[in-house]
């Protein structure tokens, strides 16, 4: 629908980064929701939030990003959300683990400005557009 904002749930325990990304995404026509750990994010989803995008850090207290994605997949929560990891963990084993959890993209924080993160998220969403079968 024209003018409808895309919902994004940003999950990161760094409040400074969380606020900065929330501001930047809201300035780019996203309806932004935030959580500071995986448990909080899952509670928001169980409470009815259905984001188009889950932008998830890996290293967080209580429940890290990988555990959160495993739980979301296991319980079939938010099955239509595009899952993207945004983390400073950039080892191949972490990227591979993200791929096994069904992430559509893996963005390394240290390599990307906030504007580049937004561009990458939009590009990932654009590449996922599927024409429905008739």
UniProtKB/TrEMBL annotation:
Sorted UniProt keywords: Phosphoprotein, Two-component regulatory system
Domain Response regulatory: 7-124
GO biological process, one term: phosphorelay signal transduction system
Gene3D superfamilies xrefs: 3.40.50.2300
PROSITE patterns per the UniProt record, alphabetical: RESPONSE_REGULATORY (PS50110)
Stored SMART domains: REC
Source species of the chain: Candidatus Nomurabacteria bacterium GW2011_GWD2_39_12
PANTHER family: PROTEIN PILG, STRESS RESPONSE REGULATOR PROTEIN 1
Protein name: Response regulator receiver domain protein
Domain of life from the UniProt record: Bacteria
Pfam families in alphabetical order: Response_reg
Residues carrying 4-aspartylphosphate: 57
Taxonomic classification: Bacteria, Candidatus Nomuraibacteriota
